[in-house]
């Protein structure tokens, strides 16, 4: 009945895999070094702001695409739609500044909703944010590939593969740790800000000195499916354009989920960073939209019902540069290098925008795992003190989405922002209840005035975000948002199911009186296939545990072999009785299980301990040369109540080669550099006194 222990790998394989891991991720960090991974505001801003800032690359463009459905005349509403988006952006920023001061654990909207509205609402918010984080990666990377494809033909020809490669690179960078990924993303994000602000300042300066700036697309005509619409149809179109422009708000919530990553005072630093993000994002979005409007830049997408027509030839010329590139080309018409700089930084910021999700998704996943809504593995930090499991899950989900939609931004964008406005609305509702609860017990007049002001801000935020959510659902539902409306309930049910499982297990494991009572007796059973050193060691160990009764059990697969075993047993005068179980169908597992069950039935208050001799081998191919009956039997015995299974290891000489091997670092452990065991710590494989006969 002896078998070997599985799971050992050769030192060369272990060292090679560890070397690759160290090259990709860097050396492991101690848990005590976690404070070194916290972010100052100057690094936190680009880390958490890249998603919101990158919306400058597509939010103004989305407004023009939607308005173009009604033809060129609808472009006159561009400033009003953009102004409405700016109002919502400032409202959300002001509201979330109250959130990050009040809740600093990293739970963000989930924590706010759970504490103030109940667990179900918390799970609703969590499901919405998880979906939106995945879409953030998919949309941002796919949009980046579109922009890069305009400069590098190979990327444009292999969009899906290029997007998945970018996701892989981002994953590795984030697995290296938050601080290092933050530094890596800080410089290009600041360069993007510099490029956009330089473009706006230079453009408005040139116009102030009398230069007329006209975009290359200014002479083109916009034709749409619903030319000249009015009344209710026009109002619906404006709401749809507004909903598309609200893509500029995605990413604002990431700071509330990333508060633990800030240096102390965490709440104040997060609020300051959020204010800076809001001002910068508002200025860039409004500036680019205004410049596009003033220079008469046009953009259309035939798949969305609008097209650009050349009035001289009557041909469709919708294949135009993105709006930001058009504005940059117009503004820097007298300085081409800056045009190249702006377009390059815009393409790069779209790649980096996904990093916001890489910082938000794993932290939220950790909080959900801590609250037993997701598997506990998501709460564990990896080698570099990052939430590695959450990062890998995010990358996998985004990669699958990119593959399923062919990295098509026009399709993915329709799924966007629904989830984030669900979380916005629920979060603001929770914050209003939070302030109401505190006001009932607060007596200090100064503190009450602060709470009244904060409640007013969150109430206004609730009204505005709730209105936008309704608009987004109405205008985007049939254009793809229905998929998110299906995915969120599925995630909700999945997380509730995981929570029920953990609650059921916790309830089942609560100690009770009879659980801690000593069993009446312990019946020991040693499984035997033949008499050799592993069997004798198992017998010696079983005797040392002093069970109430002890017997050896073997299965008679072959009658002659069983008789020879009995004769040898008697000749050696082994001080343990041998019982031979009949097996007419040459089975091993079933007769042993039936026998153990019979012992349990005779003495239900007793326990049965089954001792199984096991081989330990040093080569992978040796796994194939030893029978696996003991492994199968152990798997079945573990399901039997009142039965304990004890493995008694016997190291074959081939395992000597692994004695000095450094123990590989296990996933989820608090890592430390590998250390070789001292020479005197390892006993000779197979050594030690087993019995007088050995």
Automatic annotation (TrEMBL):
Protein's name according to its UniProt entry: APC family permease
PANTHER family linked to this entry: POTASSIUM TRANSPORTER KIMA
Membrane-spanning intervals of the chain: 77-96, 117-140, 160-178, 190-209, 229-252, 273-294, 338-364, 385-406, 412-435, 456-474, 480-498
Extent of Gly residues compositional bias: 684-694
Keywords: Membrane, Transmembrane, Transmembrane helix
Leader sequence residues: none
Database matches in Pfam families: AA_permease_2
Cellular compartments annotated: Membrane
Membrane topology according to the record: Multi-pass membrane protein
Lineage top rank: taxon: Bacteria
Start and end residues of each stretch annotated as Disordered: 659-694
């Amino acid at each position: 009945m002896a078998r070997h222990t599985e799971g050992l790998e050769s030192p060369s394989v272990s060292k090679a895999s560890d070397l690759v891991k160290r090259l990709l991720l860097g050396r492991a960090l101690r848990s005590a070094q976690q404070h070194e991974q916290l972010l100052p505001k100057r690094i936190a801003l680009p880390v958490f702001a890249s998603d919101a800032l990158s919306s400058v690359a597509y939010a103004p463009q989305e407004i023009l695409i939607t308005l173009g459905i009604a033809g060129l005349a609808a472009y006159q509403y561009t400033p009003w739609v953009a102004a409405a988006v700016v109002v919502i952006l400032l409202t959300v920023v002001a509201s979330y500044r109250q959130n990050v001061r009040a809740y600093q654990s990293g739970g963000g909207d989930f924590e706010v909703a759970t504490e103030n509205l109940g667990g179900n609402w918390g799970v609703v918010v969590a499901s919405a944010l998880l979906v939106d984080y995945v879409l953030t990666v998919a949309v941002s990377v796919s949009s980046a590939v579109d922009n890069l494809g305009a400069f590098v033909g190979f990327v444009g020809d292999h969009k899906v593969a290029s997007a998945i490669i970018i996701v892989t690179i981002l994953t590795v960078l984030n697995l290296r740790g938050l601080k290092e990924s933050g530094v890596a993303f800080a410089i290009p994000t600041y360069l993007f800000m510099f490029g956009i602000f330089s473009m706006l300042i230079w453009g408005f300066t040139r116009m102030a000195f009398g230069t007329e700036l006209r975009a290359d697309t200014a002479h083109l005509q916009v034709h749409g499916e619903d030319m000249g619409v009015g009344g209710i149809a026009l109002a619906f179109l404006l709401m749809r354009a507004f909903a598309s422009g609200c893509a500029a708000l995605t990413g604002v919530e990431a700071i509330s989920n990333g508060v633990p990553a800030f240096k102390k005072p965490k709440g104040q630093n997060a609020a300051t960073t959020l204010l800076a993000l809001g001002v910068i994002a508002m200025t860039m979005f409004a500036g680019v939209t205004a410049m596009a409007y003033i220079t008469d830049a046009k953009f259309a997408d035939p798949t969305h019902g609008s097209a650009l027509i050349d009035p001289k030839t009557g041909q469709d010329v919708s294949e135009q540069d993105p709006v930001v590139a058009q504005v940059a080309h117009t503004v820097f018409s007298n300085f081409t290098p800056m045009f190249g700089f702006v377009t390059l930084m815009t393409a790069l910021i779209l790649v980096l925008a996904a990093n916001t999700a890489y910082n938000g998704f794993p932290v939220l996943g950790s909080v959900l795992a801590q609250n037993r809504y997701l598997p506990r593995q998501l709460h564990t930090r990896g080698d570099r003190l990052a939430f590695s499991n959450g990062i890998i899950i995010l990358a996998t989900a985004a990669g699958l989405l990119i593959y399923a939609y062919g990295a098509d931004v026009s399709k993915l964008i329709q799924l966007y922002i629904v989830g984030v406005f669900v979380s916005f609305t629920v979060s603001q509702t929770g914050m209003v209840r939070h302030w109401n609860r505190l006001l009932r017990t607060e007596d200090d007049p100064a503190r009450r005035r602060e709470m009244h002001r904060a409640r007013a801000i969150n109430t206004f935020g609730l009204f505005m975000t709730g209105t936008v959510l309704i608009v987004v659902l109405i205008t985007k539902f049939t254009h793809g948002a229905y998929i998110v409306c299906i995915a969120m309930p599925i995630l909700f049910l999945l997380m509730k199911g995981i929570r029920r499982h953990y609650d059921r297990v916790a309830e089942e494991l609560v100690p009770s009186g009879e659980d801690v009572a000593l069993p009446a007796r312990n019946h020991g059973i040693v499984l035997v296939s033949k008499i050799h050193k592993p069997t004798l060691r198992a017998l010696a160990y079983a005797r040392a545990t002093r069970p109430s009764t002890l017997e050896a059990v073997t299965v008679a697969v072959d009658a002659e072999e069983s008789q020879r075993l009995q004769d040898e047993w008697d000749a050696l005068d082994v001080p343990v009785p041998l019982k031979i179980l009949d097996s007419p169908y040459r089975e091993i597992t079933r007769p042993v299980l039936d026998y153990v069950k019979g012992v349990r039935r005779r003495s239900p208050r007793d326990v049965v301990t089954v001792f199984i001799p096991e081989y330990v081998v040093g080569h992978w191919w040796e796994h194939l040369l030893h029978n696996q009956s003991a492994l199968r039997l152990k798997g079945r015995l573990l399901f039997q109540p009142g039965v304990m299974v004890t493995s008694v290891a016997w190291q074959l000489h081939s395992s000597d080669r692994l004695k000095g091997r450094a123990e590989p670092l296990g996933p989820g452990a608090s890592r430390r550099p590998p250390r070789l065991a001292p020479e005197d710590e390892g006993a000779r494989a197979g050594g030690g006194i087993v019995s007088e006969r050995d």
